Automatic annotation (TrEMBL):
GO terms for biological process: methylation. Keywords: Methyltransferase, Transferase. It holds the Pfam family LCM. This is Class I SAM-dependent methyltransferase. One of its GO terms (molecular function) is methyltransferase activity. It comes from Nonomuraea guangzhouensis. InterPro entries: Ppm1/Ppm2/Tcmp (IPR007213), TcmP-like (IPR016874). It comes from the Bacteria.
């Protein structure tokens, strides 16, 4: 039996891209992330869409990106057991179930109200995990968050959907409201945004992208409270060993060059 969901806007619907990517990864014999809950959600909703033509390459990349952001959150929480975690544009991601923060941590998943309504129908409650239905460009949602605890903030596949001014304002509000912490997200460079025009599997995203693309150093230029502390190039990460042989070889060659690696997915981590 499948569970019908409320109609979502095209931007909200992009949550299926990442969810199905993680679901397909979990079906591989040697998954990168192994998020079986993502697969359960896809099966429960009966989601199918011809727009999403997943290749093994792209689902591995989505899964690897999620894994890197999971690791950022896990490492931060290990150092700060009193932390709060925030997933911006969480979609139907169940990161808190993957990283299993201790009960001393409060975790907040933020997305548009209709997405949060879908989350509430599909994803079981978990103590200390909260869902906030809000437009991230509206400052009010931050008011419900504690200000005095260290915060780890992740955003997986979000930033391209925010206009540059909205991204700058969001980063400023986060660093002004929260005492200290880290924020990590995948970088959408101008190249990534332009490449989306050409790749048939994601060309439909192009009109939804509001960002012209940004460099990993732009957030530091926009916001003096941010310091770039890590640039995680997926080409250089250990999960590449799970890639199929030809792709693995190509990726290992690409990893030799920083410029070529930066054409692929990069997760940037900042401290504030
Ligand atoms: C590509 S999806 C990624 C979802 C999730 N992070 C994941 O990895 O599965 C982008 C998400 O950002 C959300 N989003 C985009 N703009 C937003 C905004 N202004 N406010 C709240 N959520 C937003 C969308 O609703 C969508 O769920």
């Amino acid at each position: 039996m499948t569970l019908p969901l409320p109609a979502l806007t095209p931007v909200e619907e992009t949550l299926w891209i990442t969810l199905t990517g993680r679901a397909f990864d979990s079906r591989l014999p040697a998954p990168v992330l192994g998020d079986t809950m993502a697969d359960e959600l896809v099966r429960k909703t009966g989601y199918t869409d011809d727009k999403l033509r997943w290749t093994r390459v792209s689902c591995l990349e989505v899964a690897q990106r999620a894994k890197k952001l999971d690791e950022v959150a896990q490492r931060f929480i290990a150092r700060h057991p009193d932390a709060i975690g925030i997933d911006l544009g969480a979609g139907l991601d169940t990161r808190a179930f993957r990283i299993e923060p201790p009960p001393t941590v409060d975790w907040y998943d933020v997305d548009f109200p209709d997405v949060v309504a879908a989350r509430r129908r599909l994803i079981p409650d978990r103590p200390h995990v909260h869902a906030i239905g809000a437009d991230l460009t509206n400052p009010a949602w931050l008011e419900s968050l504690p200000t005095d605890r260290p915060a780890v903030i992740v955003a997986d596949g979000l930033m391209a959907f925010l206009a540059e001014a909205d991204m700058i304002a969001l980063l400023r509000r986060l660093t002004d409201h929260l005492h200290s912490g880290e924020i990590a997200f995948n970088v959408y460079t101008k190249f990534t945004v332009r490449a989306a025009k050409l790749a048939p599997s994601v060309r439909f995203l192009q009109p939804l992208f509001k960002s012209p693309g940004f460099d990993r150093l732009d957030p530091v230029r926009w916001n003096p409270k941010l310091t770039l502390i890590e640039e995680i190039m997926l080409t250089r990460e250990p999960e590449i060993a799970r890639y199929p042989p030809a792709l693995r070889l190509w990726t290992r060659l690409a990893a030799l060059s920083t410029s070529i690696s930066r054409l692929g997915t990069v997760v940037a981590r900042y401290r504030f």
